[in-house]
């Protein structure tokens, strides 16, 4: 047993005493989260009013549908406000990834759109959920919420 295993066992011991469970059994059930879920997804998570986290997965099926070879083509991401005005843009050659976005947010709500960059043309692929601030306005104490649009 290594140092980390000992800390986990100590932390779980209180739970196990009350439930009559074996510490080893609970620890052995721990599994790594999957690297991919095989579902087209684009998710925007607020961190604070001036930064957000975006996660995406574009499935092999979707890549084939659009004829995308990420060795030769870039994915383009645009952070937009609810009036569809661009706040910032970034690109990636990865079908699965995540990125921290730093932005000035004087917007009531924001979302991300994912495009396939074909030369100078952008071909729409996915939209994220909408992340918005409370109706009390934008400030450092704003409470953020997220609306899921289904990812397509």
Protein described:
The strands form 2 sheets. Strands 3, 4, 6, 7, 8 and 9 form a 6-stranded antiparallel sheet that branches. A hairpin with a 4-residue loop joins strand 3 (74-81) and strand 4. The protein folds into 2 domains: 1-31, no CATH class; 41-147, Immunoglobulin-like, CATH 2.60.40. The longest helix has 17 residues, at 3-19. It is α+β, with helices and mostly antiparallel strands and 152 residues long. It has 3 helices and 9 strands. Residues 15-19 and 134-152 have low confidence and may be disordered. The chain has helices at 3-19, 23-28, 60-65, and strands spanning 41-48, 51-57, 74-81, 86-92, 96-102, 109-118, 121-127, 130-133, 144-147.
Give a nutshell description of this structure.
The chain has helices at 3-19, 23-28, 60-65, and strands at 41-48, 51-57, 74-81, 86-92, 96-102, 109-118, 121-127, 130-133, 144-147. The protein has 152 residues and is of the alpha+beta class.
CATH topological fold name of the largest domain: Immunoglobulin-like
Ranges with pLDDT <50 over ≥5 residues? 15-19, 134-152
- Rg: 20 Å
Classified in CATH, the superfamily of the largest domain is: Immunoglobulins
Helix content: 10-25%
Question: What is the percentage of strand-forming residues?
Answer: 35-45%
Terminal Cα separation, in Å?
46 Å
